[in-house]
Amino acid sequence: MRDVLAELKSEWELGNTAGLATVVRTYKSAPRLAGASMLVTRDGRAVGSVSGGCVEGAVYELAREMEHTGTAVLQRYGVSDDDAFSVGLTCGGILDIFVEPVSPATFPELEAVWDDIGAGRPVAVATVIRHPSADWVGRRLVVRPADSDGSLGHASADHAVAEDARGLLAAGRTSTLGYGPQGQRRGEGMEIFVASYAPRPRMLIFGAIDFAAAVASQGSLLGYDVTVCDARNIFATAARFPDADQVIVDWPHRYLKGQLEAGLLDGRTVICVLTHDPKFDVPLLEIALRIPALAFVGAMGSRRTHEDRMERLVQSGLRAEELARLSSPIGLDLGSRTPQETAVSIVAEIISKQWGGSGEPLSGISGSIHGSSHESREPWPSIEINSKK
């Protein structure tokens, strides 16, 4: 919903009923991940996408009906359907799409959710997408780390879903959960789609060089909250890094230690060390490689620089399993030459590690081009970092 939220809020403020279509589950080679949304406004405009074009027309028509029917629908599109090719999903994937009417009457909590997302406060929206009783479908529970708003219809369901949604929210994950009709954990019959709106994952880039500017641009494109840090104030300026969210002048190891102690690192944080200068690199990596939950730690440098760096890290007391967390030299082998090409190779390795990709050309491998089912794949481990342990 995040990609259509601004338009949805505008329709909501006008008192209109809009049709909101959301991918809630995918199988095989589906084109979009769970959480992708398309909004159809009262005047017929379509915003967002649920399939990259494959089934947009069919979903659009279904969403247009919401203003008149007021009834939410869970619809499956895929090769198992008789009309799979007629709606255009020829990629071999399967999409479960939940289409619902959204208005001030059906979603009174929307303004509070909007405020939370805008302020960077974590919030999750849990929606009933399937239930034996039709009047349960479309009910919502808005879940925050310390409280919740709304109700799914039963206290035990509210409690169970809120607890599970907080776990997904902490990990920044969106998923569909199954329960018994009244929230029983061992039962079945009710399905809940939990859309998590956690703050953006962080990318910390150390070294205010031209390669850092290119990596910052790529990181911003991928949705990271990007910080560039360097101890040299003549180089670490906002003007040189327009795509970074923050530019910090500080010694890298001191800044990282402060972020760790403040609890501002998590299992989605990636670190790119681009200074290839031992006086900066080694103290920084001594801290970073001792944080097991970080999503990625990579360092730039030649083979000779890498070998020298590893020797220094061994001398500093790092264990073999800690050294194994380091991706160095950073990036995939793309034959990169320019800073921009090198940045692509760096984020390609980060993406590959996130989703378990091989890094091989798709033309040379068999099977689904999106890996196994997105339903079963999780991003980086959802481990909270506590610097006091």
TrEMBL record:
XdhC Rossmann domain sequence ranges: 203-350
Domain XdhC- CoxI, first and last residues per copy: 13-78, 119-180
InterPro entries associated with the record: MoCofactor_Util/Proc, XdhC_CoxI, XdhC_Rossmann_dom
Region ranges (Disordered): 362-389
A Pfam family per the record: XdhC_C
Superkingdom as given in the UniProt entry: Bacteria
PANTHER family registered for this protein in UniProt: ALDEHYDE OXIDOREDUCTASE MOLYBDENUM COFACTOR ASSEMBLY PROTEIN, MOLYBDENUM COFACTOR INSERTION CHAPERONE PAOD
Protein's UniProt name: XshC-Cox1 family protein
